[in-house]
Amino acid sequence: MQSRTPASRTGRPRSAAADAAILAATRQALVELGWSRLTLGDVAVRAGVAKTTLYRRWAGKNELVVDAVAELFDELSLPDRGSLAADIEGVVLQFAAILARPEARSGLMAVVAEATRDDALRERIRASIVDRQKRLVLAGRARAQERGELPAQPDADAAARTVDLIFDMVAGAVVHRTLVSAEPADEEWVHGLTRVLLSGLAAAPGPG
Amino acid sequence: MQSRTPASRTGRPRSAAADAAILAATRQALVELGWSRLTLGDVAVRAGVAKTTLYRRWAGKNELVVDAVAELFDELSLPDRGSLAADIEGVVLQFAAILARPEARSGLMAVVAEATRDDALRERIRASIVDRQKRLVLAGRARAQERGELPAQPDADAAARTVDLIFDMVAGAVVHRTLVSAEPADEEWVHGLTRVLLSGLAAAPGPG
DNA sequence: GGAGTTACGCTACGGCTCGTAGCGAAAGCA
DNA sequence: TGCTTTCGCTACGAGCCGTAGCGTAACTCC
After folding, report:
1. Residue A11 pLDDT
2. How confident is the model at residue A8, as a pLDDT?
3. Total count of domains within chain B
């Protein structure tokens, strides 16, 4: 997570329990206080560790929250629901459920905002969260191609661009719906999103 | 903006020049310092006003930045480019150009993050930014229906839901592409986005 | 022109958080 | 038993917050 310890063999080892306690305390503080009122001193008290221990492991508030939020997204999975449409709806609903949790909402957007002025932080977010979940798009596409629902894309570059595009469209739409429009990404909405994604606007005029 | 002055007739009026100077100074501070290091005292010095004047007009940092960023999006327009696809690509490129500016990047995401725990702030964002730009989707849809590119939607509820969905998909995709994936929303990408939006995934296998 | 009202600039203040330094004790390895 | 690293604790200067108080400036109504 925050600092690899590959070489150090001697000396007192860092407490793994402290790591878990700190990250859990960070999420709890995000729920109760939000991003702006969250202080590292408060997190230290909640976790039962000294404030200096926090600063020894993380460079600051940004990096700590990235790690605390990243764990939330690891529970995403893509079970085979029989069709591409059903697969998409299933994983989008999972994603929406995570974004409905307050610790994900305030934490994720805040670190993304900070990352606009911090290249290292942006790379950390990309590695810890974004790229790790892009596997879902890849898996869904491969499965759909096996079913014959999607044509094969022999051009590797074009295929990669499509994967990136779909990821931005799906994740961006859910985030925007949940955080900016402040409306729930419920089954009906996800169904409409999937329809547009697969068939486009012109082909899907009817409701529901 | 921050406080309507409909009834007050007597007394010294608030300086409109100060308003403009403060909002411009806020954007400049966002560029140079980003959200977290931006302080109201610093903005006051840049704008050439007293710090107390800032607190008399805005409740805090959040509200100030919302107003400062909202002005950036008023330059969006939807010129008739002959087809729905061209209209979409044009306005999305405009939107992308705004999001490429650092004062929009860091400011917008930060206030959205804060809004997750502040209903009044979220409503302010919705009124000042989101709903104000939804006019673009409405205008584009009406124009496309006149051209016969999109079918009419007699059901008003379903039509409104579609407009909200498209807005979330387009704005969300551009924001995610620009801020999270940290890749440019250039012409090629916008072209791909438009293609998926209009025709869907299954119908558009080939490259750009 | 005077009275009343509101906005403004300036100074000062207590309170909070930050990030670091320094110390002694604890927990592992040779 | 030494050596090394982590940990908890305390203390500190620095910076920003948001407000109060005061005198002055600008504008309206009489």
Report:
1. 83
2. 56
3. 2
- DSSP collapsed to 3 states, A144-171: HHHHCCCCCCCCHHHHHHHHHHHHHHHH
Which protein residue lies nearest to nucleotide C4, measured between its Cα and the C1' atom?
B11
Residues in B touching A164 (Cβ below 8 Å): 181, 183
Asked whether residue B78 carries a pLDDT value surpassing 60, the answer given is: yes
Query: If you count residue pairs, one on A and one on B, with CB atoms under 8 Å apart, how many are there?
Result: 197
Least CB–CB distance from A172: residue in B166, B176, B197: B176
B95/B53 same-domain check? no
Which tokens sit at A92?
A: 């989008």
**Chain A residues closer than 8 Å to B112 by CB:** 109, 113, 179-180
Residues of chain B positioned with their CB less than 8 A from the CB of A35:
113-114, 117
Identify the band that residue A202 occupies on the pLDDT scale cut at 50, 70 and 90.
Answer: confident
Nearest CA in chain B to A134: B181
HSE of A182, CA atoms in CB hemisphere, 13 A: 19
- CB of A129 closer than 8 Å to CB of A73: yes
User: Environment class of residue B104 by beta-carbon count within 10 Å: exposed (0-12), middle (13-18) or buried (19+)?
Assistant: buried
A141 shares its domain with A40 = no
Q: Which of residues 64-103 of A touch B (CB under 8 A)?
A: 102
On whether residue A3 sits in a domain, the answer given is no
Report pLDDT digits (tens) over A151-187.
998 999 999 999 999 999 999 999 999 998 989 999 9
Question: Which range of residues forms the domain containing residue A148?
Answer: 69-199
User: Is residue B6 domain-resident?
Assistant: no
Q: B208 vs A127, B81, B152, B192, CA distance in Å?
A: 28, 20, 29, 6
Nucleotide closest to residue B15 (CA–C1'):
C7
Q: Take residue B121 and report the two structure tokens written for it.
A: 């702030």
Find the largest Cα–Cα distance for chain A: 67
For residues B159 and A146, give the distance between their C-alpha atoms in angstroms, rounded to a whole number. Answer: 35
Q: Is the pLDDT of residue A6 over 80?
A: no
Report the 10 Å Cβ neighbour count for B47: 22
Angle at A112 between CA B97 and CA A133, to 5 degrees: 105
State how far Cα A17 lies from the chain centre.
24
